[in-house]
Fold these 2 entries.
Entry 1:
Amino acid sequence: MTERTRSTDQPGSYRRRWWMLAVLSLSLLIIEGDATILNVALPTFQREFDASASAMQWLVDSYIVVFAGLLLFMGALGDRFGRKRALQAGLVIFGAASLAATQAGSMNQLIATRVIMGVGAALIMPATLAIIVNVFPRGERVKAIAAWSAVAILGVALGPVLGGWLLSQFWWGSIFLVAVPIAAVALLAGAWLVPESKNPAASALDRVGALLSIGALALVVYAIIEAPERGLLDPSVAGTFAAALAFGTAFVLYELRATQPLLDVRLFRNWNMSVAVGSIVLLFGAMVGMGFLLIQYLQFALGYSPLQAGLRVIPVAFGYVVGATVTDRLVGRFGARRLMTGGLLVVAAAFVGMSFAIGDQTYWALAIAMAVLGIGIAQVMTPATAAVMGAVPGANVGVGSALNDTARQIGAALGVAALGSLAKAIYSSEVSVPAAIPPEFADSARDSIGIADQIAESVGGPAGEALREAANAAFFDAFGWAMLVAALAAFVTAALVGHFMPDSEATNVEERASLSAGPKLAEVIAE
């Protein structure tokens, strides 16, 4: 059997490849749309389960940590045992976990189902891209990946809207239930349309490396989330940071010595690769952390319903689509280094704009800043993704796509943990709970704006209104500072890209298409 597929010996001779692309795009749609659907439902979960701010962060990050930690391993698994098998197993796991989530009776149970969803997603995502790169010939690959990315962007845009509509019509479990029939359709159609492929020279699975990478990521996220409540000097927090460092160091040392490593860390000697991965981590961290806080602002501070809030986050996706339409030409004209540097500066400016737009309790200034953010992201992600995929040997496209996806998910996990924890710390220190609020409620009101909103509603009267105003004011400051920190991170990354990234981007369309994923692999998904 060749590296291409069982169905063909000639690249591109698989006649059902465009129907296959629809199945792969649908498979990606459920794991990307799931994240944005969840974001718009966070305030609902907070009310339903009386959840703390830390629990809300874990509801998001439990999925992302497992997703990110397993991506490289699952990409290698697909390369070795079959990408179609990996895809179908992931769909079964994701669909079953989504169904189980609808029956959760507590936040702990819901978080547990999210962990299982992360396992399924880690099987699905690298398999979809690897199959596309493996089946489509070079002349069609860019077009196929562009269509695949467009469907993913559609999921980003429609996820919050669909989630808001479902919450307005049905109970909270409907946002998970909707994934079950989609997974079933993708599974059945894929059994017929998706050809099997694998890398016959794939290396043995690096189980030790996988465990070390998951341990390092989970520990650092746990420490970041718990630090605002317990303090950085708390023995459990400091000890967890130290353990995360130990796991991370052990992972690097083990991978350097392993004969068949999960990730060849020597790849990061390539400055294109290192800078590109760093940019992806930063962008997704800032973007997903922003989304985590923004939904709470729209629903709690501005009083929008889940559906209304979902509609109001669309400008990010709209700006991205606009930016992506010109990115290909801009890469050819200016090169990757200049385009990424400029894009990161645009991202930094957008975050500064959001920090000032948040305080006047209006939406339109915020919408403009979100659209600008989307445009800037498009100018960074396309050349960054191409650089990552271009640094990985073609036979290991599963691992290459998984590395790109891992960078995104690590950024998302750290972004929710870091920006969420920063906002929580500032909010808790600044919120002034009125004396009329019963003492047993005061500490809870300082935990998050969502809990303060619930308490204000139950207390009612002037005391409740005073608490709501105090909570909103504190959250405005917390969100503003979080956005300024995100802007600073984008500015520093722009400086690093401008200084260290080689300006050697191909200027010919055919040359750029020869990169494993092509420049159109613009999969900026706002988790």
Entry 2:
Amino acid sequence: MTDVTTSQITYVSAGHCLIVGDVEQALVVAEQLPGIQCTVVSVHPALNTIDKQLIDDSGMAVFTVASLALSGYLGAYEAVAAAGSAELSLGVSIALDNGRFDLILDLSHKPLMRASLAPFGYFHTPDAVSLAAAVSELPNLVGEFEKPRYFAYNASICAHSRSQLPGCQRCLEVCVTGAIDSLGDGIKVDPFLCQGCGSCATVCPTGAMTYAYPNPADAIERTRQMLQKTETHPRVLLLHSENNQAVVDAANLPENFLALLVEEVSAFGIDYWTAMLTSGFSQIVLLSDAAADDLNRQALAGQQALLHQLLQGLGVDEPAVKLVDSTWLADREHLKVDSTALSALTAAPFVTHGDKRQTLRMALDVLSGQLKPEDSVVTLDKGAPFGRIHINQKACTLCMACVSTCPAKALLDGQDTPALRMIEANCVQCGLCETACPESAITLEARYVWDSVAARRIDTLHEETPFKCISCQKPFATDRMIETMLDKLGSHWMFSNRKALERLKMCEDCRVMAIFDDHPEGMDVHAKDKPTA
């Protein structure tokens, strides 16, 4: 499942390495890197100047600085040093062609680049073993290198933000490389930092971020094809990466297991899992040796918990997805497949059309159609990507700020009627409507409605009688909006004149005409009403 053609990212490295650490140790290491141009920088926080020296026999530059900030990736690392009020780009200082280093060898005790997964070309070597491995690898990182552009992003359905208001943060929270940044409205992904773990796509509630290596629809279809070609009718799907191939081979899996090698286990989430549960598998095992605090593992655990809640609503208490490490395969008891409610399901594949939420809902339709939930709604934990909103009708003025900020078209206006309406199936619980509401009239409820027809129905959350212009009788606002406006502005000196206050009850066109009727010579409309000292 790793032979998918996709766009490529090219790194260009000329082999200039910045070595960070003790000068004596760094110089010794530099001698072990023939063919690699080296620059050394040592950090001493007490300094108030930036010191630069040249090693006579090699021309190597050695800097001593108070602090050092690193950013970038293979072939484009920027190193900015500071001491006191002075700040210096080290790459520019030594006249590199683009002012940037190609490689970083960090001998510090704590890494200067703090991303959970370091960018290509950065090596943190706090011990002799990691240092030896880095010295061996660095000469191989000179030249041009390509990797896939692992992701695709559709900004039009992204729930991260609207009108500078914060919404969904899921992709930023799980990115282990620091490749994702907020743009205020939407996000941006640095393809040179992205290493294709796929967690951003896994946790994205709308499908704005998708994994492109392979894309979800292709992954589902290929797995189904593999299942159809087997003669043993396996019931357990085991997903693993190249790192665990040897362990899987040695496990001698029983015939009811189908082991599938994937680029990244963390790139396969709840939409893929549920599609597999409707295709003939009764259990899915995710093999990952990542630590419990690893962001990729936490992303999978969150998706696993969501699926478990949904299946509990269908009367399935056994976990359909297991997240395990490689030691799990050593216990033969784990490889026994018990009969569960999911084992009795009839396979019912469907066409996904490449839409994440549609794929998930169609799969859940199949599951609920066969398992018959006792309750029409299942309550989910806060933050789940399904649910509805509740409106405090006494506070809501139908200003429609929530409608304008909703990225999923879950909220609708009443068109010719002052009303707020909702399609629950579209709601991703991003919270943008709640944040945008000036009256704090909105609260969220995470839940899932099994009946897809009911979930897609347009429900009216709040509706009011339209307020008609006192001049032309055209509806232009609501009674509540006019009452609120009169209450807030009635005591202001600009509306102390009765005619000025009455104009608030007029539509835009009649209000303009009334102003000119009252002040035909174009005088300052409120000058005579303005308080004097």
